[in-house]
Amino acid sequence: MRFDISKIKNTLDSQINLNFDITLEDDDNSEIYFTEPVHVNAVITSTEEGYDIDGFMDVSLDATCYRCLRPFHYHDIIELHDNINNYEEESGEKVFFNGGNQVYLDDLIRTNLLLSLPARYLCDEACRGICPDCGTNLNDSNCSCSSEPIDPRLEVLKKFLK
């Protein structure tokens, strides 16, 4: 998505308010699926070095719980703080500003969003997960498996106790 910044280009500390939705494609290898476009509410401020972008991203997605493997809906409001420099990056990083009157925010938004999302999703902080022996979802019911794990090195000695 491109935005015209010609109104603030040569005026230090001037701002443009942005309020838009951006549709992000699901990654085929990901365990998350965006259920609706990401709503972005931000302000671009001109600085001596380029432009600062501050605001928030409202994201809704479907994810799989890390502990119980149950799908659930995840919603969060994520802060957005980034900057775009007036000079070209020689480090091989993506350049979001081409020196003209337009700024490109698709990759910047996607990068900030994906780096801010949790690495592992939990349906609930108190999620008990699944039983490692029988696979029962411990949030729904208890299982009759032994709750004490046996050290595999000592499991042979258990036969002598029978």
UniProtKB/TrEMBL annotation:
PANTHER family: LARGE RIBOSOMAL RNA SUBUNIT ACCUMULATION PROTEIN YCED HOMOLOG 1, CHLOROPLASTIC. InterPro entries: YceD. This is DUF177 domain-containing protein.
